[in-house]
Design goal:
This protein is α+β, with helices and mostly antiparallel strands. 44% of the residues lie in helices and 18% in strands. Helix 2 crosses helix 3 (41-53) and helix 5 (79-94) packs antiparallel against helix 10. Residues 8-68 form the HTH iclR-type domain.
């Protein structure tokens, strides 16, 4: 008789939660997920927090949805893997969490994150489908699109109010995108206490960004050259 594999119960439970969310057609509340997979609610919350932190799930006001990291895995593209080293260098240089976003089939998705305990990622509590307008990564990608494509995207993605600083006027957002700067800024528009800076990747519907606590934003903005250099390196990686 073949030996039975040793299974890690917490991993199995987390995967069951991921399956339950992935098979749903709408956001799923934690209580419903706990019932669906047969777990106590406290255990469910603990696993959900971990999955959200790692980007496999995203939390919305209506429940949990599949996160951007799952989208990146499903895409199976090599670009995020080739770019990870660039993000690691950017993270080390600026002491900030580093990100890569990409426009994929009409949606702006988070493709890669490099962070650390000393420079953690922002709390990704809303997925990019509903929040690109409130993030520097989303703005940097939108700024590269032809006007017709940009207007089409904004027409199909409501400008949800995430914080008191979120820009919810299409006219105001368009003016910001057309401002001419190659550095997009999210000044506490996605998450209070956090500033994100991003720049487009040359000749690609992608963007590189870093996030820092609000008090560090001026110092990081003064070193925006590192962000631009990282974007150029990602572009070169894409051609490798």
């Amino acid at each position: 008789m073949a030996a039975q594999p040793t299974l890690i119960n917490s991993v199995v439970r987390a995967l069951n939660l991921l399956d339950a969310v992935g098979s749903a057609s709408a956001p799923v509340p934690a209580k419903r997920l706990a019932h669906a997979v047969g777990l106590p609610l406290p255990t469910t919350y603990h696993l959900l927090r971990t999955l959200v932190h790692e980007g496999y799930l995203a939390r919305t006001p209506d429940g949990y949805v599949v996160g951007d990291r799952v989208d990146a895995l499903a895409a199976g593209g090599a670009q995020p893997r080739r770019s990870r080293q660039v993000l690691q260098q950017l993270h080390d240089e600026l002491g900030a969490a580093a990100y890569l976003s990409v426009l994929d089939d009409g949606e702006i998705r988070l493709a890669e994150i490099v962070d650390s305990p000393a420079a953690p990622r922002t709390d990704l509590w809303v997925g990019f489908h509903d929040a690109a307008h409130a993030t520097a990564l989303g703005k940097a990608v939108l700024a590269t699109l032809p006007e017709e494509d940009r207007l089409e995207y904004l027409a199909s993605h409501p400008l949800v109010d995430l914080t008191p600083r979120t820009v919810t006027s299409t006219r105001a957002l368009l003016q910001e995108l057309e401002g001419g700067s190659d550095i997009a800024v999210d000044h506490e528009e996605y998450a209070l206490g956090t500033v994100c800076l991003a720049t487009p990747v040359p000749d690609a519907p992608m963007a590189v960004a870093v996030s820092v606590p609000v008090q560090r934003a001026p110092a990081v903005l003064a070193r925006a050259g590192a962000l631009r250099r990282a974007a150029r390196l990602v572009a070169l990686a894409g051609g490798a």
